[in-house]
Amino acid sequence: RVRAGDTLKILLKNKMPPEKVNTASKTKNGYRDLSVVNLHTHGLHVSPLAPADEIVNTRVAPNKTHQYVYEIPEDHMGGTHWYHPHWHGAVSMHVNFGAAWF
Which of 14, 29, 79, 96 is the most buried (most CB within 10 A)? Predict the structure, then answer.
């Protein structure tokens, strides 16, 4: 739980094993990098820049960590907000297998 004016820190630890077959791809819209992860929030009015809700370049490889820091504005509305993995190419695989938090 966080409140308006709080700073939310999430240390993401990617404990997935490295891929046995490289799925890296030149396209960002096809399945790729299935063992890479990052986070994206919904409903929070926070910065889209790292170390907050930046999803394009923030890449957490297997056995690596990343510290997210979200500054919640003083006038933020209440609600049930959520976050989920958002590495392009692996989003549907991660979320469909249960990696979303409410």
Answer: 14
